[in-house]
Batch of 3 targets.
Target 1
Amino acid sequence: MNALAAWGPRQADIHRLELYVEPWNEGSWRTAERNGFVREELLRSWQEARGQRKDMYMYSRLRES
C-alpha cells in the first residue's frame, strides 16, 4: 500500500486515491491511516458480498500541493 500511495500522486493525471475497507477489518484501516489515507465516511450498505449488503469505510489520499 505504501508503494502505491507514494507512486499514484506523482502521476500527472492522478490527483486522488481512494480505498474502501470493511469496518471490522481493523488491520486494513490502520494500515491505510499509517500510509496517509484519511477516513472520509462510512458508506452504509455500499457493497454486496455473498448476497448481503456490506458497510464500507471510504478513505482517500490527495496529492500534496
Target 2
Amino acid sequence: MSLTSPSTFGVIGLGRMAQALLFPWLESGLVQRASVRAVVASQASAHRLQTEHAGLSVSVDGREAWAAPVVMLAVKPQQLEAVAAAAPAPAPGVSPLLISVLAGVKLERLQRLFPGWRVVRSVPNTPCLVRAGLTALAWGEGLEAEQKDWLLELFAQVGEVLELPETQLDAFLALTSSGPAFVALVAEAMADGAVASGLPRAQALHLAHRTLAGTAALLHEQQLHPAQLKDMVTSPGGTTIAGVRALEQAGLRSALIEAVVAAAERSRALG
C-alpha cells in the first residue's frame, strides 16, 4: 500500500466512534470522500447519514465495502461473529488491511475470523471528536513498514498515537477510553457542588470544564506529577486541604482506581 489514500475505503459500522475517526481522515485527504463505502444496519440510518453528509456512500449492502483494500471494522463486539460470517474472503493473492476499533477483541481472534486479512487493532478514545484523542495500535501479523507508517499518520489526524504490545491494550482502554466518562462524572459533581454553594448552573458547568481543561494542560505542559500540583495549591489550614480531606474521607481516590481496574477487566472479558 502506498502512503496515498486507498482507492476504496470500507467502513463496517458507522457509529459515533467510526465517525469521530472518519471525518478528520476525510479532511486530511488521507481518505477521499468518494472512496468511502460505509455499511450500517438499517436503511433509515443509511438515509440519515447520507442526508447529513452529502456525497458519502452509506448503505446496508456490504459487498463494496468488503471489497476495499482497507476496511475499518467498527461494529459492537457482540456483533463480530455474525459480521465475520457474512464477510466474503479476499481474492486469491490479495491481503487487504482490516482496522479494528472493537473494544477488547484480540488480534488472534480477528485473524482467525478474517483469514487472509492483515489486521491492526486500534483503541481510540472519544476526544478524537475534537482531535484531542489518544489511540493505541497493536500490529497483527504480516503488516509492512509502509502500512504501519500510513496507519500512524492516519490516526495522528485525531490526536496522539502510541504503538503498544497487545497485552497493554486493556489497561490503555480502561484509562483513556473509559476515563472520559469518569472525568465527566467528576466535572458534573464539581459543578453540582458549586451550584450548592451559590453559583448558577450554566456558570458552574463552564467553570468546572475550564478548571479541568486548565489543570490537564498545566500537568501536561509542565510535566508535573499530580501530587506536585496538589501540593502547589494546598496551603496549611486552607480551603483546598479541607476539600482534599473530604475527598479522601469519601474514598474518591480508591473509587477511581477501582473504576479503571473494573473497566480493564471488562475489556478482557469482551475479548
Target 3
Amino acid sequence: MQMTGPFRTARSTVLVVVGGVVGMLSGVVLLVAIALCLVLAVTVIGVPIAIALLFGTVGVLTAVQRSRLTGYGVQLTVQRRTAGRWWERARQPGPWRALCYHLLVVPLGFAGFLLVVGLWSAALGTVLLISFGWLLPPGSAYGIADYEPVGLTLACVGCVALIIVALVAARGLARLDIALAGSLLQTSRAEVLAQRVTALAESRADVVDAADAERRRIERDLHDGTQQRLVSLAMNLGMARASLTDTDPQARAAIEQAHDEAKQALAELRDLVRGLHPAVLDDRGLDAALSGIAARSPVPVRLRVSVPARPSRTIEAVAYFVVSEALANVAKHAQADWAEVQVARIGDVLHIAIIDTGRGGADPDAGTGLRGLARRTGSVDGTLRIESPVGGPTRIIVELPCES
C-alpha cells in the first residue's frame, strides 16, 4: 500500500486535496442518507429499508474512495459482500467499519484540505510578492522597493519554510488517509482467516458427502451386480453338488470345495456391502441399522436409541460406522461379557456412548481402530473421548453436531 514514483510528494499533495473535496461531498451525501434512515427507522417496517439505504450509500461512497486511492497507486482488497437477510448483514463488521471511515474522512479531509491549500497559497503568494513586488511604486502596500535586504531574506526563508511544511504535511496526511483506508475499507486479517475457515469447512463437508456418495455407489454396484452373480454361481454349484452323486470322487470334492468357497465369498461380500453403507440406514434410520449391528455382535449388546428427528445422511453414516467399529473392537480385544450402546439426540448434538465390561486399557496410540474412530468423528467436527482404565470398564463418548 505504498505509492511509488519520482513524484511521490506531488502525488501526495494531489491525493490530499482531492480527498478533501471528495470527503466533503461524501459527508453531505452521508448526512442526507443518515437523516433518511432515521426517519425510516421510526417504524419497524422501515428498519430493513433504512439498513439497505445506509449500506447502499456506504457501498457507493466506498467505491468512489477506492477509485480515488487506486488512481494514486494504492490497492485495496475488496470486502466480500455479505449475503443473507438484512439482520445478518447488519451484524457484519465490514459495512460499519466503512461507515466509520466516511465519518472520519469528513473532518480530516476538510482540515487537510485547508492546511495544504493554505500553506501552498501562502508560499505561492510570497513567491509572487518577491518576484513582482518591485514593479509596484514605492510606498504601496505590496511593493518591495522600500524593503531592506534583511526583510527580503526573511521573506525568502519564510517562503521556503512554507513550501517544506506544505510538502511534509501533504506526505503525512496522505499516509494517514491511506492507513485509515487500509484498516477500515478493506477486509481485515481476522475476516480473511474466518472466510478461509468457512471455505475449508465447506470444502471438507463436500469431500465427506462425496465420499459417502461414492460408498453408496459401490454398495449399489456390488449388491446389484457382483453379489447377484455370486448367488447364481453358488446355486449352480449347489445343484451340481446335489445331482452329480456318481461322478469321480476327486471331481465331486472339487465341486464341493468350490461350492463352499462360493458361499464363503458371498457371505464376505454381504458383510462388505453392509459395511460400506447399509441400505437399512437409508430406509429405516439409525435405530434399525444399529439394531442389526447389535444382533450380529458376538458380545451381547444392550441398545438404547432416542433420535426423534433424523440428522443428515452424513451424520447418520458417521454414527453407524462409529458404533460398528467400536463394537468390532470390543469383540476382538475387550474380552467383555456385555456391551451397551446409548444414542440420543439432544438439541443439535447427537450423543453416542459405547460401554463395555472388558479389561480396559484401550489406547488410541496402540492401534488403528480408535484412531480411525477419531478421524471419522473429526471429519464432521465431532468430538471423541475415551475413558478406559486398566481393568475396565471402557467408555467411548462421541458427540456429533447434526441438523435435520
